[in-house]
Design brief:
4-stranded antiparallel beta sheet; Jelly Rolls; alpha+beta; single chain; 16 strands; 8-stranded mixed beta sheet
Length: 348
């Protein structure tokens, strides 16, 4: 991140210190029944375990997930090489108002409070999104990734990782569908033209870790997030039972899963998208790689009809995912004439 601006440090002194209770792991779920047994009872038990984690936490970790360790090692290695490049080299592939995929660092904005650098890329190339957030504007744009020349292995590592994340996400999606009493493939059709993306996160060592955040408190807008984090750790989850912030202990080669806003709407709030944040470290750099599993831009997001009945009326009005996402993307670069959009705006 370069030299630390004294004015920036001074401004952080007025920020309340984050409070976190003693480390506690979110539910840990073994996915080995998916590959070791076709027994219907085993599958039902696994789906029930995941449904319980979604309902009580909104977060869980998975092991024996089938993602090759070599794949993870390749993308982590290439990511470290990329973020070690001079800033002027990384900024050659900067994202902008037109294309949200590429490099970004928080030094772009003087008032920023997050402490990180990121590199975003889309899973499906090209990815189609609405041009505008305006409801009557039907124009679409096809977006492609911006790949740096160095390191040369970054693109291949990212594309290989994306394929593995997509396979894992579909497995989890099927288990969540089963946990809701739906057909196993009920949710597949929403992803034919998916808008999923992957972010490479780099959090440099921070001189005032108790006064700033790697990422501020937020909820994920999409369907599922599959996160790989290194052994430094930093992810914290807001526990539903009492609102306390829980530090998530890193588990070697595990992936952290959280349900997003779309699952919250689809399930009519049986499962909830939970707030989380990322802390920084004073001595060590931290790396994490979230995969954001998102549906096609034309997806109409609303509570699933199979779950609606007299005692469970819809809690949300429907909304267009592409317009929702475009509003969020544009909000990163300029103030729109609308409030920062949230699913709460669609509550019935």
């Amino acid at each position: 991140m370069g030299e630390v601006d004294p004015d920036f440090i001074q401004s952080l002194e007025h920020r309340p210190k984050p409070r976190t209770i003693e480390p506690e792991n979110i539910p840990l779920i073994d996915l080995s029944p998916l590959k070791s047994s076709s027994d219907a009872n085993d599958l039902a038990s696994l789906a029930s375990e995941i449904g319980d984690a979604c309902e009580k936490w909104g977060f869980f970790q998975v092991i024996n997930h089938g993602v090759p360790l070599k794949c993870r090692e390749k993308i982590e290695s290439a990511s470290r090489k990329f973020f070690a490049l001079p800033r002027e080299e990384k900024r050659k592939v900067s994202r902008d108002e037109v294309n949200p995929y590429g490099y970004y660092d928080t030094e772009h904005t003087k008032n920023v409070r997050d402490w990180k650098e990121v590199m975003d890329f889309t899973v499906q190339t090209p990815t189609t999104l609405p041009v505008s957030h305006e409801p009557d504007d039907r124009r679409l744009i096809e977006l492609i990734n911006q790949w740096p020349k160095d390191p040369p292995e970054l693109r291949e590592a990212c594309e290989e990782h994306a394929k593995e994340m997509e396979k894992l996400a579909f497995k989890l999606l099927e288990l969540i569908a089963l946990s809701l009493g739906l057909k196993r493939d009920r949710l597949h059709g929403f992803f034919e033209d998916q808008t999923s993306r992957i972010r490479l996160n780099y959090y440099p060592p921070c001189p005032v870790p108790h006064l700033t955040l790697g990422v501020g408190r937020h909820k994920d807008a999409g369907v599922l997030t599959v996160l790989a984090q290194d052994d430094v750790g930093g992810l914290e989850v807001k526990r539903k039972s009492d609102g306390e912030w829980i530090f998530v202990n890193p588990i070697q080669n595990a992936y952290i899963i959280n349900v997003g806003d779309i699952i919250q709407v689809w399930s009519n709030e049986k499962y909830e998208s939970v707030e989380h944040r990322a802390m920084v470290n004073s001595e060590k750099a931290r790396f994490s790689i979230p995969f954001f599993f998102n549906p096609a831009h034309y997806t109409w997001v609303e509570p699933l009809q199979e779950l609606i009945h007299d005692q469970n009326q819809p809690k949300y009005k429907g909304y267009n995912w592409g317009k929702f996402l475009t509003t969020r993307n544009l909000g990163n670069f300029k103030k729109l004439a609308v409030e920062n959009i949230q699913i709460a705006h669609f509550k019935t």
